[in-house]
Fold:
Amino acid sequence: MCTVTLYRDATSVLVTMNRDELHARAPERPPTVFEEAGSRGQWMAPIDGEAGGTWMGVNACGVVACLLNAYLPGDTVSRPRAPSRLSRGTIVPAILAQGDGSCVQAWMRGKFDPSPYEPFYLLVAWLGGGMKWRWAETTYAAHPLGKDGWTLVSSSLLEPDETLAWRREAFEQWRRAGCEKRGCVPTYHLLQVEGKEDWSPLMDRQLGGTRSITQVHVDGASRRSVLRYWPREKSSGVPVAPAAELCLPVLEYAPGPA
Structure:
């Protein structure tokens, strides 16, 4: 579960993510700025209140990372993490500690071992480049993102083929209609169609739903990154004004190959 949109042009990156989770999972903690020994500068992210990791963040080099759960054919329920497996929420902080886009790509290709984790999609973008990775137990594949324009990445445990096809068509309709925003949020992320609540980007199901919207805007002109965070009460809408808005200067810009 989860839905991410990405917009890139020559001078900016805009990433918006709906985080879908079980109602029973611990509440999220609002975003904060972190600086750990050995990392290259600061990074900022909201935090999962249960496992302590995160699903999305940005570092001082303007690298944005998003993680979505992936599912294998035949999955019908969200599998509990085996004791031998690491939390997927630790992946994004590890990526943000690497530095710029070139360093992240080198780490993902050379040092990162996906085998201790359950399946996932990983979207990483920066000024000048971006990659998508997928880990599915035995397959670890990387694909470059388009240089300009919009990208959609989404996942769903229930009826994945039908759900994702519906979301893609809704995304294309939103693009054809002019890419409307409500405040800072692309209205695609606020879409919930009556009778299709379980398929909609702003998702509601019996056991879970969209918990929050997180957005990062990396602006090459002003050389700063802004992270915005909108928590969502169960089965409610999302307020126009973000509950939290944090900024980091983009300290260096060394784009890796797209």
